């Protein structure tokens, strides 16, 4: 136990204290003192507490004081159970200090990690390949990107292939994206959300035309309606094919369309059935309308991602991250913000992997 505490303490305190730690944790000497009943355990704990107070976060000071108090009580009352509780508190403090130091290192090394991300990815993957990592599927996927020989822009081909990973609902990704599987799954989910939003907007526009509205719908009314729809859909909005609240969504769309005419009554049955039919067609994976919506959303994300890649291509990883989380210069609507967020993340992923 003493050896374990010594090794942990040496990993947690600065190097200038290591000699003192080795001296105090002279295990052979401490065991002789214990066998002969002359070990100053309280003095040892007090010294260790002062060392921990110098090195640990101020948030842990109360834990150190409590550990000393419990250990002193166990020694003075010769109560083994209380003494064991004091030692347990000591190990709890050491574990908490490990977390503090890890957080401190991450905070101060974060910028270095960002700048080194491309070099790390290259060296990591090369090392994996050298140790027999199977990359045949990744190579096949990459070569499939160039099935059109007349197109020589390889980065453009790579971009289209990555976007296809997001839009084709694939569960298995090329092995070279091993550090980004979760990001790709999140992009797939957010792409479905964009398709859902586009399907609802299309149905709203059709409802307006059936009601006699000419021209485009006011942006404020459209954004307010989409916010209400997302609130109705809840966690199911990401998958239009499994949308359980489509009738409620259709009713909200009909009401939103009629409110532009100053009508707040419940929509007539014929009008509501037309809205439900439009929405059902937009949600149905087998319909041409749904495929058209998916293609349009994919093209919009692709175009915005291409513009974003040109903007960040020559930047460092740290600058790219700043661009990714920068506040938009203009506040767009619900649909525009969704598309912009997805396209930025796609561009970030594209440039990092291409480099």
Report a brief summary of the structure.
With 355 residues, the protein is mainly α.
Question: What would you say this structure looks like, in words?
Answer:
Helices cover 73% and strands 0% of the residues. It is mainly alpha-helical and 355 residues long. It is elongated and about 100 Å long. The mean pLDDT is 80.
Query: What structural category do the secondary elements indicate?
Result: mainly alpha
Order of H and E elements: HHHHHHHHHHHHHHHH
Computed over alpha carbons, the radius of gyration is 31 Å
Mean pLDDT: 80
What keywords describe this structure?
single chain; elongated; about 350 residues; mainly alpha
Topology:
Layout: H1 2-12, H2 18-24, H3 27-35, H4 41-55, H5 61-76, H6 80-115, H7 117-130, H8 136-144, H9 154-167, H10 181-211, H11 219-233, H12 246-259, H13 269-283, H14 288-312, H15 317-324, H16 334-354
